[in-house]
Write a structure and sequence with these properties.
single chain, alpha+beta, 6 helices
C-alpha cells in the first residue's frame, strides 16, 4: 500500500469531532477513487453532488439535506432497469451514517436503536421526489483494525442485520463502506479496504446489501437535479471539467463545481465545507 498523504483538517478522519465527522467522511469518499467507484456501480458519471439542501430553489418546503446525489449515464438498453429522468440520466441518492471501528474490534457511534429515525429520513428523501434512495453506512476503521479483525465485527454485524428488514420493507437500498487509513502523526496516509465480502451470503464488490426501488425523479428533486446539472454544464463549458462534485457553501450560499480531490472546499469563497 503506497503511503500517499491524504489531506486532513489537522487530525485524522477517525479522530475528527463527531459534529464534523459525517461531512468529512463524505468528502473523503470522493477524494479517493476506490471509495467513490462502488457508488457509481460501473456507470460513467458526469457528477456527484454532496450535502445539498432540499430547499435549494424549491420554496423552502423541505428543510433536510441530501447527503449524496449521483448523476449517472445509463447503460445501453438499461432504461427498464433504471428509469431515467427526462434528461436521459439516472439519479441515485444516499443518506450517510458514520460509525467507528476501533483496532480492538469494538465499535462506536453505531446508532443502535435509531433505525426508525433513519427510515423517517429516507422517507423524507422519497417524499421530496428522489427516485432511488439508499442508506450508506460508512465504517471508518482505526489504524490497525484490518490487521486484527475481519468485517464486520460482532457489534457491527448485529447493527447491520437489525436494519435490513425495515429497509427492505420500505424499498430502500442499503450499502456499507468500510475503510482504513494508516496514521502518520496527525494525518492519514494510504488507504486500505476489505476484499469482496462473502459474510452476507452474496458476492459483491461494493458491499451492496439491498438494491433500492427505482422510479422516475419527480417534484422538488426533479427541479433540484436540473439546477445541479445546469451548474455542472456551465462550469464544464468554461473550465472543461471532467468527473466532478457539485457542492453548496453555507457561507456564501453558492453552488460550485469542484474536482473530486477538492470536494471539501467551496469553489467561490474557498471555505472548508467540512466545518459548516
Amino acid at each position: 500500500m503506497a503511503k500517499r498523504r491524504v489531506q486532513s483538517a489537522r487530525m485524522t478522519l477517525f479522530e475528527s469531532p463527531s459534529q464534523f465527522r459525517e461531512k468529512s467522511a463524505i468528502c473523503r469518499i470522493f477524494e479517493l477513487l476506490p471509495l467513490q467507484a462502488p457508488l457509481a456501480e460501473g456507470h460513467v458519471f458526469p457528477w456527484f453532488a454532496l450535502n445539498i439542501p432540499m430547499d435549494l430553489g424549491t420554496g423552502g418546503i423541505f428543510t433536510s439535506d441530501i447527503d449524496v446525489i449521483a448523476c449517472l449515464r445509463p447503460w445501453p438498453n438499461s432504461v427498464r432497469t433504471y428509469p431515467a429522468h427526462s434528461d436521459g440520466r439516472i439519479y441515485m441518492t444516499w443518506e450517510v451514517k458514520v460509525s467507528l471501528l476501533c483496532k480492538d474490534g469494538t465499535a462506536r457511534s453505531l446508532k443502535t436503536g435509531k433505525t426508525a429515525r433513519t427510515i423517517k429520513q429516507l422517507r423524507a428523501y422519497r417524499g421530496f421526489g428522489c427516485c432511488n434512495v439508499s442508506l450508506l453506512d460508512v465504517y471508518i476503521c482505526e489504524a490497525g483494525f484490518m490487521d486484527r479483525n475481519s468485517f464486520p465485527p460482532l457489534p457491527s454485524r448485529q447493527a447491520i442485520f437489525a436494519k435490513l428488514p425495515a429497509l427492505k420493507n420500505e424499498g430502500f437500498g442499503y450499502q456499507v463502506l468500510p475503510f482504513e487509513h494508516e496514521k502518520d502523526g496527525d494525518v492519514d496516509v494510504g488507504l486500505r479496504a476489505f476484499d469482496i465480502p462473502t459474510w452476507y451470503g452474496v458476492t459483491s464488490s461494493n458491499f451492496k446489501l439491498l438494491s433500492a426501488v427505482q422510479n422516475t425523479p419527480v417534484d422538488g428533486f426533479a427541479r433540484l437535479v436540473g439546477r445541479l446539472s445546469e451548474c455542472y454544464e456551465r462550469e464544464r463549458m468554461t473550465k472543461g471539467r471532467g468527473f466532478a462534485c457539485v457542492v453548496f457553501c453555507r457561507s456564501c450560499r453558492q453552488l460550485s463545481v469542484r474536482p473530486m480531490k477538492d470536494a471539501s472546499s467551496c469553489g467561490v469563497c474557498g471555505e472548508d465545507l467540512r466545518l459548516q
